[in-house]
Every structure is written in C-alpha cells, then in structure tokens.
Design brief:
about 45% helix
C-alpha cells in the first residue's frame, strides 16, 4: 500500500445535500458488486443496478433528512470517499419510516425492501443496546482505493465518535472478507454474524476508548 504524504492526504469535510449526486455515485460504485447487496437486491434478476441505485438514493435522502452526519474526503476539490455516520441519539427503525418504505417499494420492489428491512433488524439485534455510532454506508471511489484513504476516512469517523461523550463506540457490518480484515486491523472486533443466503455478514464493534487513542 502506498503511504499517504502531506500532498496526498485528503481534506475531511462534512457534506450537505448539495453533494448528493457525487455521494450517490461513489456509494453506488462501492456497493454494486458487494456480496451483501447482490443477495439483498437479487443480482440474478434484471434491474439489479436500478434497485441498488434506488436503495442508495433513498438511504442518502433519509440520512440527510434526519440531520445525520455525512463525512467525506476531498482531494483537489473532488470528493473521493464518503461515509454515512449514524448518531447515537437517533436509532432509525426502518419499519417506522413510512415515506422511506413506500419509496423503496416503488423503486426497489416490495420483496427487496422487506429483505433489506429484515437484514437491518438482524444487524441491530447484534449491536450493543447502549448509545453508539453506526456506519450504514461508506465507500472510497474506485480510482483511490488501496492508497490509504479508507484508513483516513475511518480515523475521521472515529474522531467524531471520540468527541461525543454519549457514544460507547462504533458499529458496522460487512459481508466482504477483504474489508473484514481491514476493519480488524483497525481494532474492530466481531460481535455477531448474520447469514444472508450464501453470505456471512460479520457485525463489528470498536469502543470509543480505542477510538480516542487514534483521534489524538
């Protein structure tokens, strides 16, 4: 891996809804080939790309509408990475988000919507009941992967966590073994697993005590 230098370290930015199109494009490219999304949105059936695009669009809309943090990395004024950071003060039960659910059903389809909601419930059942941050979506643009920007993004997220006295840590999940190893190297520990067809989704957690060390 190429180490980041002063010239290549990206600027950490908090995004507003004006960056919606760029954020959506990065997340679509990050997730369209992920095993979890392929299962949830049935990649064997026509229209898979449209269902993925619709899901990312609606999750971004929901996140912005709830005033949640959207963190990005910018290099030469271009957005190269993004993460949706769920606040410990807001636990979003997707079943109760009626407008989101209706839009999802109209775009991603009823079966895929309920499959996603069930997946979301199972993930939450594994996470701590205490207040914590969650990372529902994150991604580095394909042209900038394996250059250290994923680590820089995670450290920026951990700094947000460390600054919030109510948060006990950060929860996330992945069905990609390569990303699983990446998170484990950063100190995230597996606290549960969910089976999604042939995919094993690992749920990971890192306490804020550990995150504070990295934020200094």
């Amino acid at each position: 891996m190429t180490a980041l230098t002063d010239e290549t370290v990206a600027k950490v930015v908090r995004l507003e809804s004006g960056a919606f199109a760029e954020a959506k494009a990065i997340l679509y490219r990050a997730y369209k080939n992920e095993p979890t999304f392929k299962y949830l949105f049935d990649h064997s059936r026509s229209g898979y790309d449209q269902r993925v695009r619709a899901t990312i669009r609606e999750l971004l809309n929901l996140h912005f509408s709830k005033g949640q943090d959207v963190i990005g990395l910018a290099l030469d004024n271009n957005l190269i990475a993004i993460a949706l950071v769920g606040s410990p003060d807001i636990r979003m039960n997707l079943t109760s988000q009626i407008n989101w659910r209706l839009r999802m059903m109209l775009t991603a389809g009823m079966d895929c919507t309920w499959r996603y909601i069930d997946y979301h419930k199972q993930i939450h059942e594994c996470l701590p009941k205490d207040q914590h941050h969650e990372l529902p979506l994150m991604g580095v643009d394909s042209k900038f992967r394996n250059l250290g920007y994923g680590k820089q993004l995670m450290y920026a997220i951990e700094k947000i966590c460390a600054e919030n006295p109510r948060s006990v840590g950060i929860g996330l999940d992945t069905g990609n073994t390569r990303y699983l190893k990446f998170y484990q190297r950063l100190g995230y520990e597996i606290i549960g697993e969910v089976t999604l067809g042939d995919v094993t989704e690992s749920i990971l957690f890192k306490s804020c005590a550990s995150a504070k060390i990295n934020s200094k």
